[in-house]
């Protein structure tokens, strides 16, 4: 089953807010519905947002205001604007051309994820690898297979995966809710880890490689990804463990010179002071909620894309 697709004139996607308890497919017919799904993270992950953006242009039916709103639904993952722009570039040729462009982008994403899986698995040395990861970078973050978790899947298929240590990924628990769900379905050994335990487990020698995805890679190689990635990069450097970013070429943004130029989404206090609807801090507590952080390029061992390995 694909995370997101175009079926009988509408976008179908898995509502990721309900996982792991229930797997419900939403059918979206309007840009308003799609923008809402993107903002509440029913669909999320940079490659999936790229496909959502492209398919959303078909729903927008040429309305520039709707297209602009879709493009700006979330700011950090460059893939959303990229997908919108790719499809919108065909508007002059009519709806069929826009749809064809969006479907090609979907198919390219599937091929890119498969290629990244192979390339990433080829890059890593060792037969029984213990991998640490954060957030969800699997099929749920793309159309199929995923990026960093796509490498994990390929390692598992090749019999080279010992274990995945998945960080919970507060505040929205993409690691606890989504990555564990995917790993269980692929039959891959895994354990869930509190975010704050990540750097210590690296120091204790329990990890052979850290694999993460990316929301935007600046022209100089600085990489924005889910909050917690930077702490893992620091821990990996100190422990001498490879820190590998796995992302499609579409996540590289030549228009953003350095990580300092990347807009980091702040999702507001509510997500921090509550956990799945239950308040965990005194009433009235304010909070900071950067959804992403930036790992400077010198902490990155390699960036694996569908076509190359970059060593920033
Ligand atoms: O806020 P999210 O869940 O959309 O954040 C997703 C991530 O940070 C992923 O690591 C990134 O988009 C790469 S997904 C292959």
How are the SSEs placed, and which strands pair?
Elements: E1 4-7, E2 10-14, E3 25-28, H1 31-39, H2 46-60, H3 64-71, H4 78-88, H5 95-123, E4 129-133, H6 148-157, E5 161-167, H7 174-186, E6 190-193, H8 198-203, E7 209-212, E8 216-218, E9 223-226, H9 229-239, E10 243-246, E11 252-253, H10 270-273, E12 274-275, E13 278-279, E14 292-295, E15 302-304, E16 309-310
Parallel strand pairs: 4-5, 4-7, 5-6, 7-10, 8-11, 10-15
Antiparallel strand pairs: 1-2, 2-3, 8-9, 9-14, 12-13, 15-16
Helix pairs in contact: 1-3, 2-3, 2-4, 2-5, 4-5, 5-6
Binding site for substrate: 44-46, 74, 174, 225-226
Active site: 215
Family: Belongs to the EIF-2B alpha/beta/delta subunits family. MtnA subfamily.
In short:
The chain has 10 helices and 16 strands.
Would you give an account of this structure?
The chain has helices spanning 31-39, 46-60, 64-71, 78-88, 95-123, 148-157, 174-186, 198-203, 229-239, 270-273, and strands at residues 4-7, 10-14, 25-28, 129-133, 161-167, 190-193, 209-212, 216-218, 223-226, 243-246, 252-253, 274-275, 278-279, 292-295, 302-304, 309-310. It has 312 residues and is α/β, with parallel strands linked by helices. The chain folds into two domains: 4-111, Four Helix Bundle (Hemerythrin (Met), subunit A) (Up-down Bundle); 118-310, Translation initiation factor eif-2b, domain 2 (Rossmann fold). The chain has a seven-stranded mixed sheet. The chain has a four-stranded mixed sheet with strand order 11-8-9-14, covered by helices on one side. The longest helix is centred in the middle third of the chain and has 29 residues, at 95-123. The protein is globular and about 55 Å long. The two termini are 35 Å apart. The mean pLDDT is 98. Catalyzes the interconversion of methylthioribose-1-phosphate (MTR-1-P) into methylthioribulose-1-phosphate (MTRu-1-P). The active site is at 215 (proton donor). InterPro entries: IF-2B-related, IF-M1Pi, IF_2B-like_C, Initiation_fac_2B_a/b/d, M1Pi_N, NagB/RpiA_transferase-like.
């Amino acid at each position: 089953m694909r995370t997101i697709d175009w079926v009988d004139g509408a976008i179908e996607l898995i509502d990721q807010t309900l996982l792991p308890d229930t797997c419900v497919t939403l059918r979206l017919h309007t840009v308003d519905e799609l923008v809402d799904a993107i903002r509440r993270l029913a669909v999320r992950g940079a490659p999936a947002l790229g496909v959502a953006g492209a398919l959303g242009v078909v729903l927008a039916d040429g309305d520039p205001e709707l297209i602009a709103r879709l493009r700006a639904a979330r700011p950090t993952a460059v893939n959303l604007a990229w997908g919108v722009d790719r499809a919108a570039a065909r508007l002059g040729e009519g709806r069929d051309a826009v749809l064809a462009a969006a479907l090609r982008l979907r198919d390219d994403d599937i091929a890119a994820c498969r290629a990244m899986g192979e390339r990433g698995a080829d890059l890593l040395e060792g037969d029984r690898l213990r991998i640490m990861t954060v957030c969800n970078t699997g099929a749920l973050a793309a159309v199929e297979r995923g990026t960093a978790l796509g490498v994990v899947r390929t390692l598992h298929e090749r019999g080279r995966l010992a274990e995945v240590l998945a960080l919970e990924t507060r505040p929205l628990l993409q690691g606890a809710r989504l990555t564990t769900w995917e790993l269980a379905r692929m039959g891959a050994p895994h354990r869930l880890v509190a975010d704050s335990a990540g750097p210590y487990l690296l120091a204790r020698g329990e990890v052979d490689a850290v694999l993460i995805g990316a929301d935007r890679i600046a022209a100089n190689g600085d990489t924005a990804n889910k909050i917690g990635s930077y702490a893992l990069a620091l821990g990996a450097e100190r422990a001498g463990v490879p820190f590998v970013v796995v992302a499609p070429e579409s996540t590289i943004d030549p228009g953003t010179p350095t990580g300092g130029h990347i807009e980091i989404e702040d999702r507001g206090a509510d997500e921090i002071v509550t956990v799945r609807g239950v308040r965990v801090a005194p009433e009235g507590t304010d909070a900071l909620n950067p959804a992403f952080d930036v790992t400077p390029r010198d902490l990155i061992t390699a960036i694996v894309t569908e076509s190359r390995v970059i060593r920033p």
